[in-house]
């Protein structure tokens, strides 16, 4: 993943660190005996995961002769992040934090601040002969060590390295091919062809029930939807209301620019707004959650969703008797005035500067060594399999003759066993243990060759993503190369959150007609709003940081 790392998402790289979160940093926390290690971690209680009673926890306790005790949080990002900050501020924090990057993790700026205050222990001297798997991983993927190294040159924590090919191109469009066949249509290749297909979905009764119940195009949150629709006009990464990445920024002529200030961005929004005005986009596309979309995808009234903009087609389950699970196929990037760009993140789900694992000053030297050995074990091949997936023979098995790896050029190495929902979940730590999933590990997993079966789902995603590979944009801004720390990082975090969150809101308002994208007055007001929120300073900070990195 070394070549992909340079495009990896740096979620949280510029997040502010609340001063109140570390109010207790100057006091020495109480500790526990060397054979008792306390860990703060997210726990999927909704799926009956219990880290204290977990099979992998018990395996680690026996293997390393320790008693692991957990302070847990939920898989809800906002709640998990808040509880972590409260934990730190209390002064009674644990020996270590083990997090999941797409839920919550320590940002680069947090690591430097907490390390400088003595709350976090540096890992540099703990990585060596006693951690052969970490050392080997750093050598195999130099980008992994680069990712682990903070802006001050020290390693204050371990990040997650997850080489997820299908995650690298999140803004996909999944369209019902049966509907296309019924109406005698081909997959669209341009924005106007997409409009024609969506109009046919709306007006020509492709599900054949005689009712005008078809939803031509749906989504959740609008991020993937706008990214897919606007890339033919102007490069548009997925925008998120959290503002954790500078999704509004691009590069034009070697200069950092704010994409929403450009006429091309206005043209893209205008196109999306016209689709919405014609009833071709689900009215709930910007507001509904996943459960609402799943309810539509699995409607008991029949197939009603013509297409959905998502990373993968999770909105349709495999147990519908009409076989709708197999009907949705990915549509390649559309070609427009800006070409056929696709949003590329390099596997943002798990390649973010910062750390998911840190050791605090509550941990004695003996505990520090033990914790590093535990992480090192989770990076080993068998440790990874047991930590992420569970018990051999129950949750995963070795390959058999005839098994085929996801990447058919690789030798198959393991096969995950599909179990009933919830069963076997408490046998593993899941993504907490996913420290080093390189391309070879992930793609050597045995996957069924029939992509229309649940067992072939990962291959379905792999093959679909190949349609988007190679469509990276020349306008992509490599913000992960722009290191911003100290007071400037705190300033940037506030501006970034305000600007990014506002653009998400304003884009949805333009598309839905709350704001009129065709009105010069509304457009001018939008530009003034950006200025008032500090957009010019936002661009300046990133430009200066990027220039300094060259």
Model description:
The structure is a single chain. The chain is an alpha/beta fold. It has helices spanning 2-5, 55-64, 77-90, 108-116, 132-140, 142-148, 177-183, 191-203, 223-230, 263-277, 290-297, 365-379, 381-388, 439-443, 457-465, 486-512, 520-532, 535-549, and strands at residues 36-42, 67-73, 96-98, 161-162, 172-176, 249-252, 255-258, 307-310, 328-331, 357-359, 396-397, 415-416, 436-437. It has a four-stranded mixed beta sheet with strand order 2-1-3-10. Strand 6 (249-252) and strand 7 form a beta hairpin. Helix 10 packs parallel to helix 16 (486-512). The longest helix has 27 residues, at 486-512. The two termini are 22 Å apart. The model is unreliable at 1-26 (pLDDT under 50).
Quick description:
The protein is an alpha/beta fold. The protein has 18 helices and 13 strands.
Could you list some keywords that capture this structure?
alpha/beta, four-stranded mixed β-sheet, 18 helices, three-stranded antiparallel β-sheet, 550 residues, disordered N terminus, 13 strands
Low-confidence stretches: 1-26
CA-atom Rg in angstroms: 24 Å
Strands side by side in the biggest sheet: 2-1-3-10
Helix-strand category: alpha/beta
Shape: globular
Mean pLDDT: 90
Total count of helical runs of at least 4 residues: 18
Q: What is the makeup of the main sheet?
A: 4 strands, mixed
Q: How much β-strand is present in the residues?
A: 5-15%
Q: Ends: how far apart?
A: 22 Å
Give the % helix.
Answer: 25-40%
Number of strands: 13
Organism: Glycomyces algeriensis
Protein name: ABC transporter substrate-binding protein
Signal peptide: 1-23
Keywords: Signal
């Amino acid at each position: 993943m070394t070549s992909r790392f340079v495009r990896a998402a740096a979620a949280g790289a510029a997040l502010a660190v609340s001063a109140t979160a570390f109010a207790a940093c100057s006091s020495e926390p109480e500790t526990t005996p060397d054979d008792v290690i306390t860990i703060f971690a997210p726990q999927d209680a909704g799926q009956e995961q219990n880290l204290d009673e977990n099979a992998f926890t018990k395996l680690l306790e026996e293997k390393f002769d320790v008693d692991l005790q957990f302070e847990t949080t939920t898989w809800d990002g906002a709640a998990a992040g808040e509880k972590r900050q409260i934990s730190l501020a209390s002064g009674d924090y644990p020996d270590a934090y083990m997090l999941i990057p797409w839920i919550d993790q320590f940002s680069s700026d947090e690591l430097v601040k907490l390390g400088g205050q003595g709350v976090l222990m540096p890992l540099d001297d703990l990585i060596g002969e006693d951690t052969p798997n970490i050392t080997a991983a750093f050598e195999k993927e130099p980008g992994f060590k680069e990712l682990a190294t903070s802006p001050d040159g020290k390693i204050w924590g371990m990040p997650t390295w997850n080489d997820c090919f299908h995650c690298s191109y999140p803004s996909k469009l999944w369209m019902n091919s049966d509907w296309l066949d019924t109406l005698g249509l081909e997959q669209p290749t341009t924005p106007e062809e997409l409009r024609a297909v969506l109009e046919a979905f709306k007006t020509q009764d492709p599900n054949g029930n005689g009712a005008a119940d078809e939803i031509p195009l749906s989504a959740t949150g609008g991020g993937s939807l706008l990214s897919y629709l606007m890339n033919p006009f102007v490069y548009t990464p997925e925008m998120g209301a959290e503002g954790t990445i500078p999704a509004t920024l691009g590069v034009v002529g070697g200069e950092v620019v704010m994409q929403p200030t450009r006429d091309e961005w206005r043209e893209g929004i205008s196109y999306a707004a016209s689709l919405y005005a014609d009833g071709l986009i689900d009215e709930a596309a910007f507001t509904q959650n996943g459960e609402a979309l799943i309810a539509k995808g699995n409607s008991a009234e029949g197939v009603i969703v013509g297409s959905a903009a998502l990373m993968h087609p999770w909105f349709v389950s495999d147990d519908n008797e009409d076989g709708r699970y197999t009907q949705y196929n990915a549509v390649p990037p559309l070609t427009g005035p800006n070409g056929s760009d696709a949003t590329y993140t390099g596997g943002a789900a798990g390649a973010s500067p910062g750390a998911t694992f840190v050791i605090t000053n509550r941990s004695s030297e003996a505990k520090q060594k033990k914790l590093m050995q535990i992480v090192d074990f989770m990076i080993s091949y068998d440790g990874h399999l047991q930590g992420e997936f569970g018990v051999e023979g129950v949750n995963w098995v070795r390959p058999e003759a005839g098994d085929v790896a996801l990447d058919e050029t690789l030798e198959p190495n393991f096969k995950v066993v599909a179990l009933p929902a919830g069963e076997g979940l408490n046998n593993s730590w899941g993504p907490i243990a996913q420290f080093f999933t390189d391309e070879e590990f992930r793609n050597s997993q045995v996957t069924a060759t029939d992509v229309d079966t649940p067992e072939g789902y990962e291959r379905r995603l792999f093959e679909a993503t190949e349609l988007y590979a190679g469509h990276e944009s020349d306008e992509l801004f490599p913000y992960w190369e722009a290191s911003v720390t100290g007071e400037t990082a705190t300033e940037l975090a506030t501006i970034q959150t305000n600007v990014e969150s506002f653009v998400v809101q304003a884009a949805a308002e333009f598309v839905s007609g709350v704001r009129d994208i065709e009105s010069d007055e509304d457009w001018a007001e939008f530009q003034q709003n950006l200025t008032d929120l500090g957009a010019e300073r936002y661009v300046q900070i990133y430009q200066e940081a990027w220039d300094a990195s060259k």
